[in-house]
Protein: J domain-containing protein
Amino acid sequence: MNRIIRPGSIKIIIREYASDPFKILGVSRSMSKKQIHAEYLRKCMKCHPDMFPDDAAKNREFQNLQSAYERIMNWEEHQKFEASQKAQENREQEREKRQDRPETNWFSSPTRAG
Structure:
């Protein structure tokens, strides 16, 4: 895992959740926009640059929260994200199906006598 852990249990996640705004905000996909907004405000209060002007880590966390919130609340971006997640899941399922198949040796045939 690529994490930078700061004092006060502030964790800035560099790559792990970079593409999933729901994980950045710590919300589920089934939550309403009102619930997501409330969670966003709660998290922003913990790292707002006006409250912590000298802490660069909290400033970066605040920026990550803002971009994640914008991606979720912008309906077009949200739909693009959902479509890309479904496509990724489909690719993973296809990959698993291919791995479950027994390997076939195309050069040896059961009808050929060896």
